[in-house]
Amino acid sequence: MSDKPEKFIDENGLRLDGRQINEIRQMKIKIGVLSRADGSCYLEWGNNKILVAVYGPRELHPRRLQKADSALIRYRYNMAAFSVEERIRPGPSRRSIEISKVSREAFEPVIMTHLYPGAVIDVFAEVLQADAGTRTAAINAASVALADAGIPMKGLVSACAVGKVDGQLVLDLNKAEDNYGQADLPVAMTQDGEITLLQMDGDMTQEEFRKALEMCKEGCRQILEMQKEALKAKFADDTALPVPDE
Ligand code: CDP
Questions:
Q1: What pLDDT shows up at residue 246?
Q2: Ligand 1 binding site (Cβ under 6 Å of any ligand atom)
């Protein structure tokens, strides 16, 4: 039995959730939601709900794992057991190990690890509710949480996916488009447009691939603005606090 929709795009060019083909889902970003983490972010994107905690830079133990000239970055992507329809077995899976690895690599070019030899920076991304695009949602949240932790970075990282349904490219896949579409291309990039993560399922022609990257770029540009706005709002608030008397 399959609940595959007959059509993904209607005669008015709208998708099943009413979006245009180049429209991203609504995103909400909250910063500093965890008091014990050095930086944190709660992000909703469509029906995805993601919580990220950042710890560090702090001394890495055991010391034999320390790098003499830079900090080590650790990134753990984890789906809560209740985050999807069919319960996820707790603990790492092939999928979560892969996503953790590529997400860590998405941040390595921007985090100024050389400033903290012997240290570790830990990023914990918890997917509380999943609805397609969780790796990109987690990267968007992690980027903000790293900034909240005051980790020196060359810039923020933003991520979104482009896919193909009914032979057409669509930005930011929803669950049905992800499950039954013809392609899925998650991309993360720096604010200068340098790609730091690129994966692909399915197939696209070279022309489609070029166009998909342009669409991702535009999606990431919009997300970057939201990330910056959220950070400005948080830190504008902080500076508004009265300075304590000496
Ligand atoms: O979430 P993302 O698109 O980055 O990764 P995916 O492997 O393409 O998974 C797409 C979606 O399938 C997820 O966002 C979840 O909604 C769903 N999924 C699931 O229901 N059960 C899993 N074990 C893994 C994913």
A1: 47
A2: 84-85, 88, 95, 130-135, 175, 178, 184
Tell me which architecture the domain covering 27-239 has in CATH.
2-Layer Sandwich (3.30)
| 3-class secondary structure, 227 | helix
Q: What is the pLDDT of residue 24?
A: 98
Assembly ipTM: 0.99
| Cis bond upstream, residue 57 (ω within 30) | yes
Tell me if 223 sits within 8 A of 27, measured CB to CB.
yes
Distances (CA, A) of 46 to 10, 19, 132, 139, 188: 20, 11, 9, 15, 18
Substitution candidate for ligand 1 out of 49, 171, 178 with most atoms within 8 A of CB: 178
Burial of 160 (0-12, 13-18, 19+ CB in 10 A): buried
Q: Which two tokens stand for residue 153?
A: 């970075």
Q: Which residues of the chain have pLDDT under 50?
A: 1, 246
Q: Whose CA is nearest to atom 21 of ligand 1?
A: 84
pLDDT in tens, 24-80: 999 999 999 999 999 999 999 999 999 999 999 999 999 999 999 999 999 999 999
